[in-house]
Amino acid sequence: MINEDSCQVYVAGFSFHKKPFYTSTLDVDGINTYLMRFQTDGRCRARYDGQLGLIETGDLLLYSPSEPYELKIDKELNSLGELTIESGDYHIFFGGPWIDKWWKSQVRPTRMKLPLNEGFLILFRQIALEQRRMENPYPEISGYYMKILCLELDRQLKEQPTTTHKSYLAYQIKHYIEENASHMFKLDDVASHVGISVSRAVHLFKETFDTSIMQYTIDVKLDMARERIIFSPMSLENVAETSGFANYTYFYRVFRARFGMSPKQFRIANREQLK
Length: 275
Prior knowledge:
Radius of gyration: 19 Å
Order of helices and strands: EEEEEEEEEEEHEHHHHHHHHH
């Protein structure tokens, strides 16, 4: 008998690309699956709505088993006008009767914009960690996390704020920061991007998100660094550089202040969980 509450995660992980990359398959070991992919860094191109479109930081892609999937990572112009190859994402191949029911509960667009908040990211992170465990006597745990992620996605969509001109500008600033945090930029660049003065940009952002532009930029950089420390083979110095920190000394100081341990200790502690 098929368990109608069954939810399975087949493959889950975090990828970071600094070289061209291309794939066009949605088949995992012969199983047609759903796919959820969340862009956390940089840009890429993926097929949605019948064409290969630009995917930016904060874009979530959802595919049913019947939908074609195509991903291309190549040089893209960032908001500073620089050609770069940089793309980071969480990806989960999943399925099961519970997921079938969830999928049919409402119309689901292939692409949507979501905030890079910690509550959302931690679910992707936990699912990826569960799938990487060398010994895992409780594989159903990842299925429970997946259910929570799906329901959290529904809640995020339902709670999207009503857009006003002021909130629209603030969210444009937020998206600019998330897209360009791995590069050096000034407050002038942020304000120019949305066509307002620096003082107005600073005020609008603080009023909307209750944090400063510079503090949020540091938070985004640290979140990038954390994922790379856990999941990538990069040296810690390279993690700092690719996450937008001017030097390792400054990165070390703000990382320790945020997470209560050094980057090296953080890497060791989190990789111990994967054993």
